[in-house]
Structures are given as structure tokens and as C-alpha cells.
Design a protein that fits this description.
By secondary structure, the protein is α+β, with helices and mostly antiparallel strands. The protein is 39% helix and 18% strand. Strands 8, 9, 10, 12 and 14 form a five-stranded antiparallel sheet that branches. The protein has a four-stranded antiparallel sheet with strand order 13-11-15-16, with no helix packed on it.
């Protein structure tokens, strides 16, 4: 029997050699985290960081304890919807000033980043500040960098447990104090202190003390540089605001390469090397663990610890300072001498940011300066647009809300204009507002029907001070005729 020509014989697939090693390779998408032990450094920029840490913490921890007019100077009273800032009182109606503040913060960050890179991150960012504080505590308890590395690598013992417990105990106490202070901005801190001591804190106050304390403890004690590298969005979009004239921390590769060790005081040219002695101290002091000699990286927070460290090594080697320094890309590429860097500040992008910043700040300050101490809002009674009184007059009802935005009592006289023979009917045309009071009064406006034809008629409410006369409010509304 002849095989069918349409049938194609199929060759059996050979089985894989079971003895052959598996060629599959597992690739992790996440880099293994290695704890960074930054080395302590001293110098000009280190002193600036210390000063900024002290300044920011004096402001943060000190402001809630300041008193102003028998109240807390800075208090965001969410329950009563009043926000105190020294002599100013703001209400939810003043949200425009919050928007202006956010715009100023954003524009200020953009302006400073365009001029000098991530100085905010390196000197004033809360993550950087609290990481610095936690590192100081760690260094005081565990010792310098080498001792900390040795302690982490050593097996657990009673001594190690005691040292670690002391460090974490100090961290936890500091974190709780930070959370306590945060709550003191929203609930009077003297009240919070009394409730905390008597263990009578409300549920929300308790939650935020421990939540913010836990966040501080976790971010500054454990996550540290990971927050800057992976969680902070600013690290990702900062390059958009950089240009070739932005001051950034740079390694002078032309001067430093080829790097290598040599004896102290030897001229690099005589041994065919650059000024970099390849000591690695610039890497050891970096809080994010990068090597600035590999060029500018998004992980660099601009703290300039590497500059201080390198300058110290250059001094010991009797070499000129500045192997690592603040400079610009154009200056490094010899487009202009570094002495002209400051002349490049007035470039279009910087000028634009500055002008917009000044305009927003000017508008906000002007608005606050000329803000009336009393706010008046007119709300028409929607349940009955117009009705006829027993005397045959047409009557409209209005609710007038007064908000005293000052901390002084206000006496006002209310009147209305717009139609002839119009009569304001209320218990009293005079009203006294307590400091920061929010009051609602109801008034009726009556007009003869022949003087208020069918339709809407424009009227205007007025409220003026009885005593000093510095309050003059006008609010437009309408009278509905029959």
C-alpha cells in the first residue's frame, strides 16, 4: 500500500536533556538596598546646613508657643474655621490667599532651582533636615562612620542591643515631639500639652501625634535617601528647570583625571595624574551614596558635602581647592570664565520667574493691606421672593452675614439704597460684632408697589462704622417687584 502523498510525516521533537542546566535567568526589577553610613564632614557648606537645620527647627518648634493678643500666635483652628497668623485672622472665604501662598512657594522653588539647582533639597527640605538630625543622634550614640559600620556587621549582643535601643528610643522621643508640635498648630498647644500629660487627648489629636511621629521615624530613620530617590517627584522633574547656566555641583574632570593615589605634596603633573587622589571620601560623605565624579545625577540633592570633603583633602595635599565645586555647564565647557557666572543670572527664564513671583507677592500683600476688617454677604430668602404686607407694600427678605475678620469689636450701621421710599425693616439698624465673630441677621425691604414695577430692580446695601468710620461696605443685590 502506497502512502498518501498529501500526508507530510512529522518528525518527533527531541526531549530536552534533563541533565542540562536551566538557562532561565531571574532578573530583579528592584535594586537591592544597601544602608548608607554618611561620613561626618566639616566646612563652609556643612556650617550652612547646620544653620538651616537650627533655623527651620526653631521656627517649627517655637511658633506654636508664641502668644499674641492672649491667644496662640500661629493657630489653624479647623473646628471654628479661623486661622490666626500673628496679627491677621483668616477665614475660609480667604482661600484666595492660600492659593497665592502656594503659587509663591511653587514660583520660588522654580526660580531658585533655575539659579542654583536643588539647594532647597540640600538645606531646607524636611526630609533632609530630619535625616540630618537623626544622623546626629546616631553618631552621638553609635559613634563615627567606621564604628557604625562595624556595629551593624557585628552579631547581636547585649552591648549592641543596648546601643541600638538607646538610639531608637531617642529617635522615637524626637519623632513624638515632632508629631506633638504638628498637632499644636491645629489645637492650642497648651491644651494639647495638658491633655497629653493627663493622657486625655482626643482621638484625632492622638492619631496625628502618633501618625506624624511614625512618619518622621520611618522616613528619617530608615528610608532616608530612598525618599529622595524614589518617592519625591521633584527629583524627577528638576531637570526641566535646569539649563546650561544653572549652578550645580560638578567635578572638574579635566583637572582631576586620571585619578590615583600619591604621596602628599607631589605635583600631579610629575606622576602623570590629575588632582583627584581617588580617596573616595566624596562618596563616603554623600547622603544619597552617589559618586559625583560620574557626573551630575538626579539623586544629587545639592548639599555640597562632597565639596567640603574634597576641599579638605586638597588642603592636605597642598592642591588648590575647587576640584568639586559649584559651577555651570557653560563655565565647565569654557564658554565663559567662572568669574562671569553671576552675570548670567539675568537670563530670560530667571527674569520671567522673578517678575511673576513679584507680581503674585505684590497682589497678595496689597490684598491683605487693603482688606476690610469686616466682610458682608447678602443672601436672598429663596422661600418667598416677594410678598404683600398688611399695609399694601411689597416686601423682600434678605439674610445678611457679617464676618468680623479683626480681633476688635465692630459697631456698624446698616442702610439700603436704590429705590425711592424704600424702607429697611429690622430689629435695629445698628449691629455690634464681637472680635472674629460670624453673625447672620435677617432684614426686610419694603417698597410701595407703584414704585417697584414687575421685574428685578438693583439695590445696594451699605454698612459703615459708627465709631471710627474705617469700615465702609457696599454689596449689590436686587429687589423683586410684583
Amino acid at each position: 500500500m502506497q502512502p498518501d502523498k498529501d500526508i507530510i510525516p512529522i518528525k518527533p521533537i527531541p526531549q530536552a536533556d534533563k541533565a542540562a542546566p536551566d538557562s532561565a535567568e531571574v532578573v530583579s526589577l528592584y535594586a537591592e538596598h544597601k544602608k548608607i553610613h554618611p561620613r561626618a564632614v566639616s566646612g563652609v557648606f556643612a556650617n550652612w546646613r547646620i544653620a538651616m537645620v537650627l533655623l527651620t527647627q526653631v521656627v517649627y518648634y517655637g511658633f506654636p508657643w508664641l502668644q499674641w493678643n492672649d491667644r496662640q500666635a500661629v493657630l489653624f483652628d479647623l473646628v471654628n474655621r479661623k486661622f490666626y497668623l500673628f496679627g491677621l485672622t483668616f477665614f475660609p472665604q480667604d482661600f484666595i490667599y492660600v492659593a497665592a501662598l502656594l503659587m509663591l512657594c511653587a514660583l520660588g522653588l522654580f526660580l531658585w532651582t533655575t539659579i542654583a539647582g536643588r539647594l532647597w533639597c540640600g538645606y531646607a527640605c524636611p526630609q533632609t533636615v530630619y535625616t540630618e538630625i537623626f544622623l546626629w543622634i546616631e553618631e552621638k550614640i553609635e559613634g563615627d562612620r567606621n564604628k557604625r559600620i562595624k556595629l551593624d556587621k557585628s552579631p547581636m549582643s547585649a552591648q549592641k542591643l543596648g546601643i541600638k535601643s538607646a538610639k531608637h528610643g531617642a529617635w522615637i522621643l524626637f519623632s513624638l515631639w515632632t508629631g506633638f508640635t504638628l498637632v499644636g498648630y491645629f489645637t492650642p498647644i497648651l491644651t494639647v500639652a495638658h491633655e497629653f500629660v493627663t493622657w486625655d487627648l482626643g482621638p484625632w489629636e492622638m492619631f496625628w501625634v502618633f501618625f506624624y511621629g511614625f512618619a518622621t521615624y520611618g522616613n528619617a530613620g530608615f528610608m532616608r535617601e530612598q525618599v529622595c530617590k524614589y518617592m519625591c517627584p521633584y527629583a524627577r522633574f528638576q531637570s526641566v528647570m535646569f539649563d546650561a547656566d544653572t549652578l550645580v555641583i560638578s567635578y572638574d574632570e579635566e583637572r582631576g583625571e586620571p585619578r590615583g593615589s600619591r604621596k602628599k605634596g607631589i605635583d600631579p603633573a610629575t606622576v602623570g595624574k590629575g588632582s583627584c587622589v581617588d580617596c573616595g571620601i566624596c562618596v563616603q560623605v554623600c547622603p544619597t551614596g552617589i559618586d559625583i565624579r560620574q557626573g551630575l545625577q538626579y539623586e544629587c540633592i545639592g548639599c555640597a558635602a562632597c565639596i567640603d570633603a574634597c576641599d579638605e583633602v586638597m588642603d592636605k595635599m597642598s592642591y588648590p581647592r575647587g576640584l568639586i565645586r559649584y559651577t555651570t555647564e557653560n563655565a565647565m565647557e569654557k564658554h565663559y570664565p567662572e568669574s562671569q557666572i553671576w552675570k548670567r543670572l539675568a537670563r530670560p527664564r530667571v527674569v520671567m520667574y522673578f517678575l511673576v513671583l513679584v507680581a503674585v507677592a505684590g497682589a497678595a500683600i496689597t490684598g491683605i493691606w487693603f482688606r476690610q476688617p469686616v466682610k458682608m454677604d447678602i443672601l436672598r430668602d429663596r422661600s418667598s421672593l416677594v410678598r404683600e404686607t398688611n399695609e399694601g407694600l411689597l416686601e423682600n427678605t434678605y439674610n445678611i452675614r457679617f464676618v468680623n475678620m479683626s480681633e476688635n469689636p465692630q459697631r456698624l450701621r446698616i442702610s439700603v439704597e436704590g429705590l425711592p421710599e424704600m424702607k429697611l425693616v429690622t430689629e435695629s439698624t445698628e449691629i455690634t460684632l464681637a472680635p472674629t465673630a460670624n453673625e447672620l441677621i435677617t432684614v426686610n425691604i419694603q417698597v410701595p408697589p407703584e414704585l417697584a414695577k414687575k421685574g428685578s430692580h438693583k439695590i445696594e446695601f451699605k454698612a459703615v462704622s459708627i465709631d471710627e468710620g474705617h469700615v465702609h461696605l457696599e454689596e449689590k443685590s436686587s429687589f423683586i417687584g410684583e
